[in-house]
Amino acid sequence: MSAGSNVNCSFEAPPVEEFWEWEMGDWRKSRAMRILAIDRGHVSYVDIDFKSGTRKTIILPTFPLDSRLMSTSSSRHKYECQVMLPSSYDSVRALVFSVSPIVSVMARIFDTTPAKLNLVLETSMTKLVDNTSRGDFYTAPWNYKAFEDPSADRYWLQIEATNILGRSTLIELRPFSVNGLSAKLSWTWKEFFVMGCQWAALFYPILWSALYFIFFILLIPKALLIYLKKQYTCRSFIANKGFINGIAWVLQELCRVPIVWYGMLGYILHLILLPWFIGQVFTDGKDRGYMTYMVWVVKSSYGREKHEYVGSPDIMVVVLPHLFFVVLPCILVTGALAVEREICREHSLLRSGKKEDDYDREKMSFLLYGYQGIENLKFHFGKRWIRKVLLVVCLAICWKHFESCRALDKVYEMNPLIDFPGYSFSIPLLLTFAVYKTRNI
């Protein structure tokens, strides 16, 4: 153990294992790129967003590193055990890319100990003439040991470059730790959702929870209808209003459209038991594979009989949105269409005077008319405005589904008619049939 540290520096200590996955840019959609630099083992980067406009000068500090993002366990281990390369710590370094010639580059270090920024070092950086990088490389010597500190965000770095036109460019202040400590990073909710959640551990619990829930809302109402002869209808909802009775009524009305119900159940089984689609998995154009709800399956390059399973949990960006934003809304809106038809049928019978007794007519009047009056009811149910709203929801589901199919077609070079017909057309066909079947009352 090193003095004053809990880092194990013995030869028997297990090696530090780390893994970084880098996204090098998103030019096609976001017009963004990332400049990556490796300086004597220190990795740094800067992101460029061209949607916000072009930048005349780009500054990329290569050392010291931002302790919020780039400090690693291995860098701390090497520093604490004094096995790092000292020459990689003895200067402040930065890459500068500029349209106009640069006349000066300044490095400033601030101390935040008194709860405010105090300038403790300001030095001019010198351009290296023998430079093999595409940008201009600037360095400034410093005493790095003077900035050792148990806090990862006590010292902050800022670099300013001034071009020949007198225009100054500054990078935002960033904390650093020469001894390799990591500072806490404040996440926005979106950043935490994308980067902070452990999706590899959450994917399968979320997936199976969604599948169990879908089977539950499909099978339980059907079982109640067949085996217990317990029917949830418009009349039963009138007699005993409640959220559970309302949901049960909606789902049992879906069961009364048998082709849609069996089609939806068959589609869920298809998603579980059969491949979703076939496509070009890798960019080399050699291997085509098929995707299930869990992994991509591709033939091994080492043998024809073997298969490799890749893409987990990355495929969750396809699987989970399809289940939550296409399949589940499709089930609910189909049940809502059936319920709307049943309410309109009861309303039609009520207006035509075909109810069996006055007691039923009174209770139906209270449900359908409520406090709004007969004319308001005629407006909503006579013209079936609720149905029209549900049709808009159906169109939104189909639009979402076809957008997903179009994106998959571009990414994996697939033909919807050949490579994934079940995935592409099942939901639109089921919705179309449900709309057709519930058109008459």
Instruction: Bin the strand percentage.
Output: 15-25%
Total number of helices: 12
Integer-rounded radius of gyration: 32 Å
Judged by helices, strands and strand pairing, the structural class is alpha+beta
**Major sheet summary line:** 5 strands, antiparallel
Helix content: 40-55%
Q: List unreliable stretches of 5+ residues.
A: 366-381
Shape: elongated
Q: How do the helices and strands follow one another from N- to C-terminus?
A: EHEEEHEEEEEEEEHHHHHEEEEHHHHH
Report how far apart the termini are: 80 Å
Secondary structure tally: strands: 16
Task: Describe it.
The protein is an alpha+beta fold and 441 residues long. It contains twelve helices and 16 strands. The strands form four sheets. Strands 6, 7, 10, 11 and 12 form a five-stranded antiparallel sheet that branches. Strand 13 and strand 14 form a beta hairpin. The longest helix is centred in the last third of the chain and has 37 residues, at 316-352. The chain is elongated.
